[in-house]
Design goal:
By secondary structure, the protein is an all-alpha fold. Helices cover 67% and strands 0% of the residues. The radius of gyration is 17 Å and the shape is globular.
Amino acid sequence: MNGAIPAFALPLLAAIGVLAYCIGSIPFGLLLTQFGGAGDIRTIGSGNIGATNVLRTGRRGLAAATLLLDGAKGVFAVMCGFILSPFHTGPAMAVAALFAVVGHCLPVWLKFRGGKGVATGLGAVLALSPLTGLACCAIWLGVARLTRISSAGALAAFAAMPMMLAALNHTGDGPAIPVGGLLIALLVIARHRGNIRRLVDGTEPRIGRKRP
């Protein structure tokens, strides 16, 4: 679909957005640490519910599970958008991807205090454009390994993501997916504003080092 979205499709897109938000808002990091006996992740380190902060508990298995499940939220939400809207797949998938990340970052169940959207965003982008998703994962892992700073890898990956989506997305659905990717990137980068300040100051914690 290359033209404007018809009015009759808007209620379905809204419903897909709500469903994706609910999927994205499942706080796997919080649930896994509580049921795994690691305590309330919101009282540890940065207080973030994502995999990087779960790693600060010393429970690598829980951190890995959080990373995979948070990524799976993005993939599942986009697949739901694809299945539920067969005639407007590009816009539906883009809406699902964006709202899955919004749900992770701003979950209503946790008073809108969620994660930073990296794993969920990468999962969503993998579903939107596998080549872009794989490239972003490679950038994230490569920069994080080189600098030993997780946030540096995430920022590099999401800064590059909109351009790669525009170049590698060939669904024929117009600008919906690249625009959705741009909004996801802006949200994830905005959620890292504290990390950006610490990167500039040279005080951002490195991987494996406990946050002061």
